[in-house]
Amino acid sequence: MIGIGIDIGGTNVKLGAFTGEGRVLAERRFSTDSGRGRADFIKRLSKAALELKGSLVGRAVSVGIGMAGDIDPDAGLARFSPNLAGWRNLPVAGPLEKALKLPCFLENDANMAAWGAYASELKGSGGSAIAVTLGTGIGCGIILDGKLYHGAHGSAGEIGHIVIRPGGARCGCGQRGCLEAYCGSGAVMAAARSLVKAEASFIRKYADPARPRFNTVCLARAARAGNPAARKVWRDMGESLGMGLAGAVLLFNPEYIILTGGVSRAADCFLPAMKKVFAGQSIATPFRRVKIKVSRSADLGVLGAALYGLHRAAGR
Ligand SMILES: [Zn+2]
Predict the structure, then answer these.
(1) In this predicted model, what pLDDT tens digit does every residue of 276-310 receive, in sequence order?
(2) How far is the CA of 5 from the centre of ligand 1 (A)?
């Protein structure tokens, strides 16, 4: 059984074919170029997927597609895609089904990354998990009793825009005090910039020599080396993340919290502060029992889409 996974982002579209165990068989990518128009995009998407399907030795049985934006999973439609020229009501699953003659399932990209983390880390154990993608933005997928939870209109899991500090920092969404405005990579680096005075020497001292940048990787290395400013930034971030996730734990009592995405690679720097927030909660049981895992890979969008497609196709 082979599943095709597609991750549609504002810059690139990534495609991959995977076995049910998550072994990659083939990969493709092309640049999104949404400026060329929606009809042209769908044509290029179908072509790339067809080529991938044609290159496989075994038989693909399903396609999962993750896409950023406001997605209607039932209709296979992208209701609004801010990163793709602001397209509205773009049918994605339908045209692909027609071209590939395979069942296609469209989801929000955070849901697909969440499914990837859940399926590959927990081997689809059937339990309940909150899978959080930590990157520029903060996405979240909710898996309840082994099923991805969509909410009534496909919008469940928008944890990045839960307000943790009323009147606080401005978020990209326009609101103030969102979790993302404290824990997104942009917010973390803005906090670092305000504390680290000599950026150039900080980079020289702590950055990965192969990528000498002032980024979350550099900031994590600095914290591990004991730099007090870096340690404070991660401590504050962990505390904010703990506040945001505490709401989810109280609401869903998940068995697992799985952290994925680029910033999750710094989990050793922020988890102690997050756990401290959990330990201070008065409804103690769900916080004491929840298992916190960091996914082995930071980039699970394509794999998650492929595994989710297989999961859905099997349930048909
Ligand atoms: Zn927001």
Answers:
(1) 999 999 999 999 999 999 998 888 899 999 999 99
(2) 28
Ligand 1 centre to CA of 303 (Å) is 27
CA of 171 to the centre of ligand 1 (A): 5
Give the chain's radius of gyration (CA, Å): 20
Give CA–CA dist 257/128, Å, rounded.
Answer: 9
How do 87-91 and 138-144 pair as beta strands? unpaired
Report phi then psi at 191, rounded to 5: -65, -40
Confidence class for position 111, pLDDT limits 50, 70, 90: very high
**How deeply is 200 buried, as exposed, middle or buried, from its count of CB atoms within 10 A (0-12, 13-18, 19+)?**
exposed
Ligand 1 centroid, distance to 62 Cα (angstroms): 34
| Complete domains list, the chain, with CATH | 2-119+300-314 (3.30.420.40), 126-294 (3.30.420.40)
Q: How far is the CA of 119 from the centre of ligand 1 (A)?
A: 28
**36: phi then psi, degrees, rounded to nearest 5:** -80, -5
Q: How far apart are the CA of 290 and the centre of ligand 1, in A?
A: 26
pLDDT > 80? residue 195: yes
pLDDT at site 310: 96
10 CA distance to ligand 1 middle (Å)? 19
Q: What is this structure's pTM?
A: 0.89
Write the single-letter amino acid at 98: K
Using alpha carbons only, what angle is made at residue 270 by residues 266 and 273, rounded to the nearest 5 degrees? 170
Q: In whole numbers, what is the pLDDT of the chain averaged over residues?
A: 94
Q: How much distance in Å is there from the Cα of 246 to the middle of ligand 1? A: 18
Q: Residue 124 — very low, low, confident or very high, per pLDDT cuts 50/70/90?
A: low
Task: Please give the distance, rounded to the nearest whole angstrom, from the Cα atom of residue 248 to the centre of ligand 1.
Answer: 16
Name the β-bridge partners of 28.
15
Q: How far is the CA of 313 from the centre of ligand 1 (A)?
A: 34
